[in-house]
Design a protein that fits this description.
single chain; alpha+beta; Cathepsin B, Chain A; 9-stranded mixed β-sheet; two-stranded antiparallel sheet; 7 helices; 15 strands; globular
Length: 288
C-alpha cells in the first residue's frame, strides 16, 4: 500500500479487501429494485434538522489531514442522522489525526484505518479552530488553499500535534466519557447506484480521488480533469448528486475552508469514476 502526498492536502489509500490487519467488508445495502434513486439529492435537504452539521465547512489548514477530515465529517453527519438529530456533535479531526498513529498525521494518512479506529477506539468531539464547546477542537489555524484571500497562505506542513487524551481545559468534558464509536465498511467499488443508495439510506460517505493541477483553480460547475499534471490524492465527503447542463455530478464537501471553490463545495463528474472518485468509498454506522 502506498501513501500519497499532495502539497497542502492529502491523500488516500488504494482499495483492498484486506488492508494491513484490517478485514474490510464490501457492503451492498439494497438492490436497485428496492429503492428509487432520485435524479438529484442533497443530504442537507433530506435531513434538514442535521443540515448545519452536514454543511459545516472545515479547514485542514497547513496539514495533510484530509483523510481525517473526510472521515470525521461523515461520522458527525451519521451520528446526527441516525439519532434523528437528537445528538448533534462534530467529531474531532484533531483527536483522530493526533492519536491514531497507524492512521497517519499531517503528512498523510489512510481512510480505512480512520474508520477502523472509530470502531475500535473511538473519537471524541472537536469543532473548528478556536471554538470552545467540544473536547478537542482543531489546533491549526485556517489558511488559504491555492488562492488569494484574507487568510495567510498555507505554508509547509505543520508537525502532527502530540496525542493528548484529555479535553480542552476550557470545557467541562471528560475525554474517556466523550469517545464516540461506530462500524466500518466499504461500499461496492465503482458501483454508482450502490454509492447513491448508501448515501440515501445512511448519509454522507468518505471518498478519495486523484488530483491534477487544474483542480486547484475550481470555482464552479462540474469538474472534469482536462489538463495539468497529477499531483497526488485527496479525501473528501460526498453528500449528494445531481445533473448540470446535461452532466451527472457528485456534490462534495471539501476541507479547504469556505473561501475555496464554490463556498467550500465542489461538483465532480459522476458515472465514469472521474479521477477515481467512485473507487474508494468508505463509511460506517454510529453506535448510539
Amino acid at each position: 500500500m502506498n501513501k500519497y502526498f499532495l502539497l497542502s492536502v492529502v491523500i488516500f489509500t488504494a482499495v483492498a479487501l484486506t488492508y494491513g490487519k484490517i478485514k474490510l467488508n464490501i457492503v451492498t445495502q439494497k438492490t436497485e429494485d428496492d429503492v428509487e434513486i432520485p435524479e438529484t439529492f442533497d443530504a442537507r435537504e433530506q435531513w434538514p434538522d442535521c443540515a448545519d452539521i452536514i454543511g459545516t465547512i472545515r479547514d485542514q489548514a497547513a496539514c495533510g489531514s484530509c483523510w481525517a477530515f473526510g472521515a470525521v465529517e461523515a461520522m458527525s453527519d451519521r451520528i446526527c442522522i441516525h439519532s434523528d438529530a437528537k445528538v448533534k456533535v462534530l467529531i474531532s479531526a484533531e483527536d483522530l489525526m493526533d492519536c491514531c498513529t497507524q492512521c497517519g498525521g499531517c503528512n498523510g494518512g489512510w481512510t480505512y484505518d480512520a474508520w477502523e479506529y472509530w470502531g475500535k477506539t473511538g473519537i471524541v468531539t472537536g469543532g473548528l479552530y478556536g471554538t470552545k464547546d467540544s473536547c478537542k477542537p482543531y489546533s491549526i489555524a485556517p489558511c488559504e488553499h491555492y488562492m488569494e484571500g484574507e487568510l495567510p497562505t498555507c505554508g509547509p506542513y505543520q508537525k502532527t500535534p502530540e496525542c493528548k487524551t484529555v479535553c480542552d481545559e476550557r470545557v467541562d468534558i471528560v475525554y474517556n466519557e466523550d469517545l464516540r464509536t461506530g462500524s466500518v465498511y466499504l461500499i461496492a467499488m465503482d458501483d454508482v447506484e450502490q454509492i447513491q443508495i448508501e448515501i440515501l439510506t445512511n448519509g454522507p460517505v468518505e471518498a478519495d480521488y486523484d488530483v491534477y493541477e487544474d483542480f486547484f483553480s475550481y470555482s464552479s460547475g462540474v469538474y472534469q480533469h482536462i489538463d495539468g499534471d497529477y499531483v497526488g490524492g485527496h479525501a473528501i465527503k460526498i453528500i449528494g448528486w445531481g445533473v448540470e447542463d446535461g452532466t451527472d455530478y457528485w456534490l462534495v464537501v471539501n476541507s479547504w475552508n469556505a473561501e475555496w471553490g464554490d463556498n467550500g463545495y465542489f461538483k465532480i463528474k459522476r458515472g465514469t469514476s472521474e479521477c477515481g472518485i467512485e473507487y474508494d468509498v468508505v463509511a460506517g454506522l454510529p453506535n448510539l
